[in-house]
Amino acid sequence: MTTSSGFQCATCGAYHTGYPMCYGPSAPEIWYTIPEAEREARCLLSSDQCIVDEKYFFVLGRVEIPIIETGEEFVWLAWVSLSAENFNRTCELWEEEGRESEPPYFAWFSSALPYAPTTLHLEAILHTRPLGERPAIELQECAHPLYQFQKNGMALAELQALTERIMHG
After folding, report:
1. What is the pLDDT of residue 4?
2. What pLDDT is attached to residue 2?
3. E strands along 3-161, which residues?
4. Burial degree of 61 (CB within 10 A; 0-12, 13-18, 19+)
5. Which residue in 157, 136, 154 sits closest to 146, CA to CA?
6. Most C-beta atoms within 10 A of its C-beta, which of 58, 65, 97, 154?
7. Nearest to 102 by CA among 91, 90, 85, 112
8. Which domain of life is it from (predicted)?
9. For the chain, what is the radius of gyration of the CA atoms?
10. pLDDT tens by residue, the chain, 169 residues
11. Nearest residue to 88 (alpha-carbon basis) of 110, 100, 105, 71
């Protein structure tokens, strides 16, 4: 069975063809707390990086979760915060060949994904990847369900439940 076969949605009753295999917010969680009228003055946001108030620094990365039955992978696009020093180093290497040889950076998870408890402020390691690839986010060992899925994989039924939560709130 592959994730392209789809599923009968337990929430809305409709048949959904395939499973969307990548989700994620377009900005770190802090960005959403800033009044819209202030965002342009206080934030620099691109598709991969964000700076808030010139003191909070974020990079978009990938949390990769194997789907046990299929060998495929579900990906959360998520934001992590870095120290100013590590963010600046990441920016220096952004367009450099061989950047994947850079040691990983400590990071704080900065996206509120649909899990309980919250995913905000989980400890993580950010691994730089080759040019053209988003960095990989490795959650640090903890009891959080997201860490458990990243470490052990996710069953197709769990992917369906997650997809339904994302689609229907």
Report:
1. 56
2. 52
3. 7-8, 15-16, 22-23, 43-45, 49-52, 56-66, 73-82, 105-109, 123-127, 136-139
4. buried
5. 154
6. 58
7. 90
8. Bacteria
9. 17
10. 455 577 787 788 888 787 788 999 999 999 999 999 999 999 999 999 999 999 999 999 999 999 998 889 999 999 999 999 999 999 999 999 999 999 999 999 999 999 999 999 999 999 999 999 999 999 999 999 999 999 999 998 898 888 888 877 7
11. 105
Residue labelled with tokens 């994620």: 24
Contact 151, 122 (CB under 8 A): no
Question: What's the full length of the chain, in residues?
Answer: 169
For residue 169, what are its two tokens? 């709130």
CA dihedral of residues 141, 143, 148, 149 (deg, nearest 10): -120
